Amino acid sequence: MNVQDLHSIFLEFPSVNTDTRKIKKNDIFFALKGDNFNGNTYAQQAINNGASYVIIDQEEYYINDKTILVEDTLVMLQKLAHYHRNFCSAKVISLTGSNGKTTTKELIHAVLARKYKTIATVGNLNNHIGVPLTLLSIKLNTEIAIVEMGANHQKEIQFLCEIAEPDFGFITNFGKAHLEGFGGVEGVIKGKSELYEYLIKSKKSIFLNADDPIQLEKLKNYTKKYGFSSINSKYYKIELEDAQPFVIIKVEDTVIKSKLIGAYNFHNCCAAIIMGKFFNVELPEIKIALEKYTPENNRSQIIKKNGHYIILDAYNANPSSMKVAIENFNSLEKTNKVLILGDMFELGNSAEEEHQAITDLAKTLLFENVLFVGENFYRTQTSSIKLKNFEELKAYLSQNNLPANSSLLIKGSRGMALERALEYIQ
Q1: Residue 115: Cβ-neighbour burial (10 angstroms; 0-12, 13-18, 19+)
Q2: What domains are there in the chain, each with its CATH number?
Q3: Cross-strand bridge partners of residue 339
């Protein structure tokens, strides 16, 4: 079956699923393969669970006329998404970057949804499977689609751009994330900049953080750019008024009081503001959107428990995001500060150096109560408490009371799942 014919079926049953455990009635099930699973083997189960059609790429799993055999299910999913993206009239905004992608995406969505029919990437489904699924969630009446793009190696963003064909783009920042796959910081800059390269080549518009010297340099000769800055008068002025702990912004004569903690979230808010302005969302509407947005899913959440003030930022971590989170926590006017920091993953040969740098930073900033968790931190040279894994952290917290009325920062890579520590904080 060709992609055009499959798209006709999709228009009749416009919901795609890749997980039989989450099948809803009339979903189209794509039988994808992974290192440890073969979706073709679940074709019958998908039909039993209510799927309208199943897309397979192994003939022996053909069942009946509800089964559609293709050469490669993943490739067909990507082709269908690309076809649908061009079939619909929605403008596509793509964003990538080392830190803050998902929060920025949510903020942009909140702002633009004040005026337009919008869709956005769900969670962080931002890879070669997630991006197609996002594009397939575009409805015929969708006006703007906000598509998050993640990457951990070269050419990945380029490939996602070829599928999504973005009309606009924004890079949050260039940081020390996925160093192993990208081959160092320069590799990160090169990989993330593939979004710029696609947009410039196709003469599309770019949103620019003009406070970032790397972005300024890369786009100095490009004219279709719309920038914001707190320091550069050539660009739309947005100022950071405060971050104690919540980010407060001044733009024109309007003060916006967000529920986001940390000065590092300032530029994420700015991106949403500049896009709102570009798409003619009135400033009072932008203010409402940003002030209503509340972070969740372990991203800079404020939790109060047993008299403690907890900043739970355990969704993910890399050396750049860890550094700014610690520095921001240090700047807060709080007492009895406690750091619970977990390992940072995908750093390759830089892992030892980067973990040592974080322990050195904690020492330099004179944090007295620090718990480092994970095998990488356990190998560092530090006088702070080191725990090999979560079980040791669990035991420590169960046996030791933190200082009364402590303020805690909990941060680590997703694989550490440090949000589990909440249960044991006394």
Answers
A1: middle
A2: 3-70 (3.40.1390.10), 88-292 (3.40.1190.10), 301-424 (3.90.190.20)
A3: 370, 409
Report the share of the chain in percent with pLDDT over 90: 85
Half-sphere exposure (Cβ direction) of 257: Cα atoms closer than 13 Å: 2
User: What does the radius of gyration of the chain's CA atoms come to, in whole angstroms?
Assistant: 23
Eight-class DSSP state of 170 = E
- My answer on whether omega of the bond before 245 falls inside 30° of 0, hence cis, is yes
Q: What backbone phi and psi angles, to 5 degrees, belong to 21?
A: -70, -15
Q: No. of H helices and E strands in the chain?
A: 16, 21
Bridge partners, residue 70, by sequence: none
Task: Supply the DSSP string of 373-389, one letter for each residue.
Answer: ESHHHHTS--SSEEESS
Q: Describe the strand order of the beta sheet including 369-373 as a list of residue ranges.
A: 301-305, 308-313, 407-411, 337-342, 369-373, 385-387
- What are the start-end ranges of the E strands in 21-83? 28-30, 33-34, 37-38, 53-56, 67-69
Pick out the residues of the known binding site for ATP: 97-103
Residue with more model confidence, 151 or 159: 159
Cα separation, 268 vs 107, in Å, equals 8
Alpha carbon distance 226, 287 (integer Å): 20
Q: Which residues does 263 contact at the CB level (< 8 Å), separation at least 6?
A: 240, 243, 247, 324, 328, 331
Pairing of strands 37-38, 337-342: unpaired
CB 126 within 8 A of CB 195: no
**pTM reported for the whole predicted model:** 0.89
Residue with structure tokens 């402590």? 406
Structure tokens at 308: 């403690």
> Of all residues in the chain, what percent carry a pLDDT higher than 70?
100
Residues 6+ apart with CB under 8 A from 181: 152, 153, 346, 348
Phi, psi angle pair for 412, to nearest 5°: -175, 170
Alpha carbon 116 to its chain's center: 22
Determine the longest span between alpha carbons in the chain, in angstroms. 68
Query: Which residues are documented as binding site?
Result: 97-103
Euclidean distance between CA atoms 41 and 61, whole angstroms:
7
Average pLDDT over residues 177-204: 87
Residues paired with residue 68 on neighbouring β-strands, in sequence order? 55
